[in-house]
Amino acid sequence: MPLPVGSNLNPILQLAQWITDPLGVMDSNAAQFGDIFTLRWAGLKNIVMVSEPNALQVVLTSPSFTAPGEANEIARPLVGDRSVILMSGEQHQQRRKLLMPPFHGDRLVSYGHIISKISNQVIDQIGLNQAFNVRAIMQDITLRVILQVVFGLYEGERLELLKQRLVTRLDVSSTKLGAMFIFLPFLRQDLGAWSPWGRVMKMQKDCDELIYAEIQERRANPDPERIDILNLLLATQDEDGNYLGDVDLRDELMTLLFAGHETTATALAWALYWVHKLPDVYQRLMSELQSLGDRPDPMAIFKAPYLTAVCNETLRIYPVAMTTFSRLVKTPVEISGQMLDAGTEVLASIYLTHRRTDLYPEPEKFRPERFLERQFSPYEFIPFGGGSRRCLGMALAQFEMKIILATILTNARLSLSNPSQNLSPVRRGALLAPEANFTMLKS
Ligand code: HEM
User: Fold this and answer.
1) 392 CB less than 6 Å from ligand 1?
2) How far apart are the CA of 258 and the centre of ligand 1, in A?
3) Which entry of 59, 216, 220, 439 is 20 to 30 Å from 31 by CA?
4) Residue 230 belongs to what H/E stretch?
5) Is the CB of 407 inside a 6 Å radius of any atom of ligand 1?
6) Which InterPro entries does UniProt cross-reference here (predicted)?
7) Per-10-residue mean pLDDT, the chain, length 443
8) Residue 3 is assigned to a structural domain of this protein
9) Ligand 1, from 97, 233, 316, 384: best to mutate by most atoms within 8 Å of Cβ?
10) Residue 385's domain is classified under what CATH number?
11) Is residue 235 part of a domain?
């Protein structure tokens, strides 16, 4: 069966456009071809993109589809071969079960006060009336949070060094060259320390050195009292009684550090923009936060309805992850009126789903009230994907966003450096982020 129709633009240009203007690609294809179309990327692959909730449900949950780790090759240079992102089938499900508990329930609540403390510390360091880069500050907070959750590292020399090296490494993926490394694997040639990819590999080695040192130290000095993820992974045995090896540990830790902080930092930067851009939203949110009292319980913050609506609307309007990971058709299946052959690769467009006028009237308007007026199904509002590969950190990310926002808004007075600026979304590595020059002031 032929693939669904799509733009007949040259595949080299299609790939170049996807790298430089992903929203333009999705908007123009959806306007021309509707709910299902094919993207053709030279040298890489053809991908069918879908955005209609019934189709999404089938793609993400039906046994006609798989969610193979091999389709996520682009993450390999960063997360390594033994990461949950690259695993498939039974092995993938088992690894998810292992990693999930620290991100839920009581464990999560126990992080509430530390997240608040970290937020205050970072915000306190900003000078009065000095423009600060919002994404960088949010990244500092979320990186500290994830290092605490993953390693139990709250302060100290190794934490500062690891933080610095991780930011340097991860920043590469956010540049234009970095985006090309992601999509054009042939550019990844390590020709020594002076070649672009050689430099990236050196940065990677610098991070790994510290991660392996932490693993060694923790193996040598076990402490059952610690509740961080590294402790949990160190104690894990498979059915044959084998413990996870150092490479497995390193790859999973790197996965959580990578997937767990830039996403949340970017979402927070967007949230601060919208809240300060729209006075009505600011007023309503502040009166809700004030009604919670002086030192609100983290769970009261987590449950606050308008704060929840603001966070949801932030993740709807410019979803930090524009699409899910790929899914693969296992047995021929009909989606949005089109038959797809086994082996077809499919991406769910989170962005296009969130821009559907049948679900979200005036979708370009930031209006948190829409989340108070109606409930959306998990295939209508899908910022964290769905099914067997749904975001592992969803609960932590939602919790973190609310605690950080509430802490900052109640303890600091911020404003946009340029109130008339209408912030545009740009690709930052694999994410959709505010423009790099987005700054705010603390007064
Ligand atoms: C606002 C913040 C975040 C957003 C928008 C986000 C979004 C996503 C999305 C869309 C996926 C792919 C889901 C799919 O294909 O169905 C994903 C996967 C993943 N996320 Fe997140 N994420 C966020 C924060 C986090 C955090 C805090 C962590 C960990 C601490 C995390 C860990 C992961 C992992 C490990 C996967 C891969 C799961 C697998 O392969 O089974 N994410 N995320």
Assistant:
1) yes
2) 10
3) 59
4) helix 229-234
5) no
6) Cyt_P450, Cyt_P450_CS, Cyt_P450_E_grp-I, Cyt_P450_sf, Cytochrome_P450_monoxygenase
7) 90 91 96 96 86 98 95 85 93 88 76 92 93 95 90 82 87 68 68 75 89 92 86 82 88 89 95 98 98 91 97 98 96 96 97 98 98 97 97 94 97 95 91 93 94
8) no
9) 384
10) 1.10.630.10
11) yes
